[in-house]
Design goal:
Shape: elongated
Radius of gyration: 47 Å
Distance between the termini: 85 Å
Order of helices and strands: EHHEEEEEEEHHHHEHHHH
Helix content: 40-55%
CATH superfamily of one domain: Band 7 domain
Number of helices: 10
CATH architecture of one domain: 2-Layer Sandwich
Structural class: alpha+beta
Length: 337
């Protein structure tokens, strides 16, 4: 029901005496007097024997009862409580004693739910839970409450609503164990006077509105993106510090700077696979005679690319003699002043 509870009918464990629990002792108690009456009637040729035997058999069949191992029978004598019977066979006085309830003392599982209940931060949620409980005192369960199974169910539902009403959505999603323990203590406090103890409460599912789910997803995505940008900024800062240290080292050792420039040119030619690269004249002057090696590497790279493409390679050319003869280091018109 909107704005309230989803009432789950509890499995009633109390069966009244009017349900008519038959057992072999009752059948035996009826058959023996009835058979004796039939035999007496056949001997005396008097039908009153059959009537008397059947009447005695009906009364005798009402006396023996059998309680199963997990059951306790609440016996009333002329409406007054006289005690619990069972497990096993026991006798009652017909028309005087009555069994008001059969109490099941096994652990009972009761599902319950709260639909569209507002949290402390006014968010409607649907919560499904399961309650595990046991009747530890059959006398109190039979005498102190009218229907202890239904009472436990309603106590669990109202306790769940109270817990949700004073808990925020984030606490409800993250602190399930704490909420389950608090809910168990609250239900157990209410049900103990009825002879019922609560073993545990398990929250199966917490459902929030779809629109709120989308908003939470966007919030999580934005948080992760923010963290990624912060990490990237920290990396850029560390790189800048390293570049500053490298610049100080290169300023003190020009030869190392020239070697680094040569390595950069070589890596660029090797990765790009091209024979033409425009570089500032300052780099050409700095690499000096070592540019011959770079030019040779560029020509070899070009020949290899042409051969892989299936075309006829260019004729062998003499080794270049200086920076001006290296196509990879040529300066196009207008590049240098």
């Amino acid at each position: 029901m909107p704005g309230g509870f989803d009432v789950v009918p509890a499995r009633s464990t109390a069966v009244t005496a009017n349900a008519g629990r038959s057992n072999f002792l009752s059948v035996l108690g009826f058959m023996v007097p009835a058979g004796a009456g039939v035999a007496l009637a056949s001997v005396t040729s008097n039908p009153l024997g059959i009537v008397a035997g059947v009447a005695i058999g009906v009364v005798a069949a009402m006396a023996p009862k059998i309680a199963r191992q997990w059951e306790r029978a609440v016996v009333l004598r002329l409406g007054r409580y006289v005690g619990l019977k069972g497990p096993g066979p026991f006798m009652v006085i017909p028309f005087v004693d009555s069994i008001s309830a059969w109490v099941d003392q096994r652990t009972v599982t009761t599902p319950f739910a709260a639909e569209e209940t507002l949290t402390s931060d006014t968010v409607p949620v649907n919560v499904d839970a399961v309650l595990f409980w046991t009747v530890y005192d059959a006398e109190k369960a039979a005498l102190e409450v009218q229907d202890y199974a239904a009472a436990v169910t309603w106590a669990a539902q109202t306790a769940l609503r109270d817990i949700i009403g004073r808990t925020s959505l984030s606490e409800l999603l993250r602190g399930r164990e704490r909420i389950e323990k608090e809910l168990q203590a609250l239900i157990d406090e209410r049900s103990t006077p009825w002879g019922v103890t609560v073993h545990s409460v398990e929250m199966r599912d917490v459902v929030i509105p779809t629109a709120l789910q989308d908003a939470m997803s966007r919030e999580a995505q934005a948080t992760r993106e923010k963290a990624a940008r912060i990490i990237l900024g920290e990396a850029e800062r560390e790189i800048a510090v390293l570049f500053n240290q490298a610049a100080e080292m290169y300023s003190q050792n020009p030869t190392a700077l020239q070697l680094r420039a040569m390595n950069i040119l070589y890596e660029g030619l090797k990765q790009k696979g091209g024979a033409l690269m425009m570089v500032p004249s300052s780099i050409v002057d700095s690499v000096g005679g070592a540019s011959n090696l770079l030019g040779a590497a560029a020509i070899a790279q070009q020949r290899m690319a042409t051969r892989d493409a299936g075309e006829e390679g260019p004729s062998a050319a003499p080794a270049p003699q200086g920076p001006a003869s290296i196509p990879a280091l040529a300066n196009p018109p207008g590049l240098l002043p």
